[in-house]
Amino acid sequence: MKQPTLQDFNRLVEEKDLEKIKEELKYIINDFEQSKKTEFRFSENGASSIVSKDFILDELDQIIKTRTIERTRYYLKRFIKSLSEVKTRKTNDINLNRWKEYDDIITDSLWIIDKRDQSGAHKAVYWGNFIPQIPNQFLRRYTKKGDWILDPFVGSGTTLIECRRLGRNGIGIELNPAVAKLARENLKREQNPYKIRTKVLTGDSTSIDYYSELEKGKINSVQFLLLHPPYWDIITFSKRKNDLSNAKSVGDFLEMFGSVAKETYPLLDKGRYCAVVIGDKYSSGEWIPLGFFVMQEMIKRGYKLKSTIVKNFDATRGKMNQKELWRYRALAGGFYIFKHEYIFLFQK
């Protein structure tokens, strides 16, 4: 096929006969449909953009269904702009002129994710790691290529693996030396196509000298914070007293978490975002709303709550193959089995 150019579409905008516009569009649509290519390049004034075949066909289909010449011209002009102009916000690389191409970016507050991504270096061998789709969603929506990401509870490195895949720089802090070593080994297995920097620090996120560590890397600030702390004592990650999973009470847990929130707040650029992934727990027959307690700790330190996201999860490793037992316990004890966790999104 001879690919239509931007000039061809501009010429259609000037056409006064609606039927002639639609007749030509039918030929253009047919050519795109018959093509084996899945992407097409459009160029203008030395700049070029690559556009998916599906996006083109969806837009042209909408144009051809219009009933008035005014509406047809409006959609044609919008289509031309989507091929020739990039419109992004300062906090991400999403081209809003082609927003329909990002249908895999979640904008609902309920996240139903069937299974975790286990591609590449992502492995579900560490008890405390979260699904890679969480950092993937946030990094694509709230950061730009080359931004700096800080994860004070990096665990086995899930966030930093996603940083490598998406072209973001990342720093992670891990209290347990063995787990920090695992994170570094995982990162070695992940390719680094964008040549970005990722670093795992072994240290206590409640007391580490963040400014000193950033200064070593000549980093002035970070553009996104992602916090995935232990869900208090649901899983004990070490025997260390400064481990949040060993907090003696919910008050102690919140004080320790609050220290991390306080120390990292100044590092984040104004107007940028922070996400906290946290779940609730039961204690002595009582539901402890740990998630909402943590949310309040963040708000007290100056953050503005932007969204509360509820994400599903099926079974923890401790409850695997025990569904019948836990169902019996729920019926006998008058409670409900956890099937969700929270993701709180904040803006500085």
Question: What is the gist of this entry?
Answer:
The protein has helices at residues 6-14, 18-34, 53-64, 69-84, 133-142, 158-166, 177-189, 210-216, 250-264, 290-300, 323-333, and strands spanning 39-44, 47-52, 110-111, 148-151, 169-174, 198-202, 222-227, 268-278, 281-283, 286-288, 304-312, 340-347. The protein is of the alpha/beta class. It has 2 domains: 6-85, no CATH class; 110-347, Rossmann fold, CATH 3.40.50.
Structure description:
- The strands form three sheets. An eight-stranded mixed β-sheet has the order 3-11-12-8-7-4-5-6, with helices on both faces.
- The longest helix is centred in the first third of the chain and has 17 residues, at 18-34.
- The model has no long low-confidence stretch (mean pLDDT 92).
- The protein has eleven helices and twelve strands.
- The N and C termini lie far apart (51 Å).
- It is α/β, with parallel strands linked by helices.
- 37% of the residues lie in helices and 20% in strands.
- It folds into two domains: 6-85, no CATH class; 110-347, Rossmann fold, CATH 3.40.50.
- Helix 9 (250-264) links the parallel strand 7 and strand 8 (268-278).
Radius of gyration: 25 Å
What are the segments in which pLDDT stays under 50 over at least 5 consecutive residues? none
Q: Please tally the β strands and state the result.
A: 12
| Widest β-sheet, arrangement of strands | 3-11-12-8-7-4-5-6
Q: Provide the CATH top-level class of the largest domain.
A: Alpha Beta
| Alpha carbon gap, first and last residue | 51 Å
State which percent range the strand residues make up.
Answer: 15-25%
CATH superfamily of the largest domain: Vaccinia Virus protein VP39
Enumerate how many helices there are, as a single number: 11
Query: What composes the largest sheet?
Result: 8 strands, mixed
Give the CATH architecture of the largest domain.
3-Layer(aba) Sandwich
Mean of pLDDT: 92
- CATH-defined topology of the largest domain: Rossmann fold
The count of domains is 2
